[in-house]
Every structure is written in C-alpha cells, then in structure tokens.
Amino acid sequence: MRLGLFFRRLPVALWGLTAIVSFLLGLVAAGSRPTDARRAPADIAPATRSTLPLVAPIPAPASGGTTIDFAGVAARLRPSIVNVYATSRGSADPPAATWRYPRDTTSEPSFKDGSGFLIQPDGYVLTNAHVVQNADRVMVTLSDDRVLRADVVGADPAIDVALLRVDATDGLPPVVLGRSSNLRVGEWVCAIGNPVGYTGSVTVGVVSSLDREIPLFGAGEFIQTDAAMSLGSSGGPLVNTRGQVVGITNSISTQSANIGFAIPIDQVTAIIAELRDRGRVPRGFIYMRVAALTPELRRALHVAPERGAIVEEVTPDRSAERAGLRTYDVIESIDDRPVLSENGLVHTVASRPPGTVVRLGVWRDGSRLVIPVKLEELPSSAAPRPAVAASVRPAANPSAGPLGVTARDLTAAIAKMLPDAMSGVVLSEVDPAGPAQVAGLRKGYIVLEVNRRRTASESDFAAAQAALRLGDAAAVLFYDPALREYRITTVVVDIRP
C-alpha cells in the first residue's frame, strides 16, 4: 500500500499520487459530475480534540419497537437534505495538486453536484470537501426549492468534510447527529441524497464493514455499506433506523454496484468547531513514507516484530531525519501504543496537532530504540512534479533471472534525472508474468538494494540475484523517477523455475 504520513506522497516526492496504483481503478467520489467525479477522496482519522457543539443535542425519534420504518425516517429528514452545486470559472494556470486531490488538467470552467444536510437552524450545512473544492460559487437548493448562496466556512480535505453556511432568517430543520461508534456490521442504514440530480433519493442497505481501510484514501477508517450511491450522492447523510446521521456518504466502488463508503460521523463532530472558528484543521505530520510490514518483507529482512510500519523514505532536512529515523526502521509503537499497521500510524499522527512531540518505538537491526519526533503540519498542497522519461537500452541478456527483471547500468542521461550521487541499476525489462511485476516493479525504476545489499552496477545486481533461491523473499529498495519516490517492495522468487 502506498500512503503515508507523507508517507505516501509528498515531497521529496510530495504526492506522487502513487496510491493511484492500488485502488485508483476501484474507487470514485460519489458526488460530482463526471469531469470531477473520479477524484476519490481520502480519509485520515480525526484528532482527539475538544469540541464545541454547534447545537444542543436533539432528542432522537423513537425506533418504533422492532419495526424498521425508513419511510418515516426519510419523511422526517427530507426537509434537512440539500443539493450542493459548485461552479468554478477555471484558470489559465490550474491549481497545483493537493495531497488529497489530483491536479486539474484543464483550465475550462467546471461544475459539480453533490448533496449535504443541515446541522443547525441558522444555516450550517455539512458536505464533502471534494464537492466544493476550488469553487468560485457554491449554491444550495433546499427541499422547498429555494436556492441560496453558500459560503464555505471551512474544509478539512484530510477527512473530506466541508462546512457551509447559508443565510436563513426563518430557521431551517437540522438533522439529528448520532454516533458512528455505536454502529454494528449488519445494521440497517439508509442513504439520502441527490444522485445524478434525482433530489431526495432514498436507498436502503446494511453496514457491510466498519473501519474499512482503503489504500487510495490514505489512512481512513470508512463505513462500508451496500446502500446504493451514485454520482451526486457525495455529502449526503447515512442514517440509522432511529433517524440519526451516522456518516457522510462520499465514495463508491467502480468495480461493484453495491459497495459504497461513508465517513464516520464521529470523525466529523470532532472537528466541526475548528472548521467553524478557524476554517481548517491543523493536523500532525511526519515527513517520511511507510509501508506495510508484510510476512514476506519480515522474512526477507529478518525483522523480528510481527506488526508495525516499515520506513521506506525519510525526507531530508525535516524533523524525522533530524530525529534519526532511517530507511528500514520498523515503527512498533507511538507513545507506547502499538502500531498495528501503517494506516494506524498515519491515523494516530494525523490526530495530533502540529508541534506535538511523539515517542516512536523503533526496531532497528535487532535493537529497540525510542525516538522522539516533533510533528510538523500536514501540507495542504504539493508542487506538481514533471514525469521523468528516459529511454533504456535493451539488456544484452534476455534472461529475466529469478526476480523476473533485467537491469542495466545507469547511463549519463538517466543519471542527470536522478538525485545527486544515486547509484543503482535501471530496470530495462520486467516480465509481465513474473514475480517482480506482481510486486509492483516496473520498467524504468532504479533498483538501489536487494535484501539491503547495494546494487550499484549490473554485476552487483546479478550477484544479488544469484544469492536468491526458489521461494526466497527479496526486499527491493527502489526509486521511481517519475514520482521521485523511494519505495520498498517484496518479490517472492517463484517456487519453481
């Protein structure tokens, strides 16, 4: 998986958008018109922060015994559901990519449709950040067909939430906010929104999974549901049988008609006050990228910890490097709490404010260390990086070897495109049916080490391959020139030639 606390795409490779590989084909934002709808939002679990409710708690309606009455729920909530329409004039100089969204590739005006819901009688509305991103005008259509101009009060792209405000002198009916922490897998829920312009549409399903981690979305913990969603549903409420909003719908799978995702409402209520008062939510960040500590990677690197996150890259001249973190370090804990996955680490760091000093428990070459790191602030944008294209001369030996790749020494032309003093070999061929292809290695990547053995030349690479046996796991440290990222992947040598 490719995410990170930068972990996954920020400079030095600030947003390579390499996440693009693992889930890009599978997820789209559930809310905008086709030109913008495929910008699937990501999710990072929110900070544990003091919150100031916008409104006093509203008594939840009775559940009606064991009867599930979504007709009654929909009737009560429909006046609180709105349509959100965002337009952009476009620009001759499109905005740069953010850590959450791809860079606009067109200067043409754009428009996006989405959904939203009222959370306070004086006109506060929740929706998805991707619905109103870069908008020059946002309009909200109420259930009585009134169309009001909306101001974007604040947005947190990290969890894809935006807070809007419309002028309302006569009071507007808010929803009841529930608790997503009380949800159970198999529980009935309904989604209400405006898919493809069909206002007030209601669909019903169950909670398919909780705490769903989606590689493309970073470190998110999503509610998965089979309640149908479509383009334009983004920002609408996911509602339980008591009529309480437990999530905000925001993305769908393009590979299935019945897999949708919603942001847990607990993550949203934790930051509403900051969105209202500050317009943004500062989040902690460590300038490094981490990967999953898989069994194959543990075996290849002889790593003792069974759980944790392995460091792929540490950005120079940032707090992580100054604290002494290195590639191949395994982060086992943060402030004495176990790190069970790289997403868990991202989640925890993003939940702390910038400036916080965290204590990372690190396993390094058989020793355990505690490394204090001061959190920096999660960047809101990254400069677009040009792709690096270089011709690679064919390998003299067509044999792909045990990893299913052939490699050549770096030419002067390629070396000019790489960081200073980088030594390695460039992959000139990758067997499309070989183990390296399965592990994510591609033609043009620069292999720096195999099982921590440097591969500065073709002969080094050949020696590293010769040391492998059938069934071995090889940890490959490589550099992606197009995305300017260092990565670690594990290639398992075929068990038979």
Topology:
Layout: H1 20-23, E1 27-29, H2 34-37, H3 70-77, E2 81-88, E3 110-118, E4 124-127, H4 129-132, E5 137-141, E6 147-156, E7 161-166, E8 176-177, E9 188-193, E10 201-212, E11 222-225, E12 237-240, E13 244-253, E14 260-264, H5 265-269, H6 272-278, E15 284-285, E16 288-292, H7 295-301, E17 309-314, H8 319-323, E18 330-334, E19 337-338, H9 342-350, E20 357-364, E21 367-374, E22 376-377, E23 405-409, H10 412-416, E24 425-430, H11 435-439, E25 446-450, E26 453-454, H12 458-466, E27 473-480, E28 485-492
Parallel strand pairs: 8-13
Antiparallel strand pairs: 1-13, 2-3, 2-5, 3-4, 4-7, 5-6, 6-7, 9-10, 9-12, 10-11, 11-14, 12-13, 13-14, 15-22, 16-17, 17-18, 18-19, 18-20, 20-21, 23-24, 24-25, 25-26, 25-27, 27-28
Task: Provide an overview of this structure.
By secondary structure, the chain is an alpha+beta fold. The chain folds into three domains: 31-281, Thrombin, subunit H; 284-377, Pdz3 Domain (Roll); 405-492, PDZ domain (Pdz3 Domain, Roll). It is built from twelve helices and 28 strands. The strands form five sheets. The chain has a six-stranded antiparallel beta barrel. A six-stranded antiparallel barrel has the order 2-3-4-7-6-5. A hairpin with a 4-residue loop joins strand 27 and strand 28 (485-492). The radius of gyration is 24 Å and the shape is elongated.
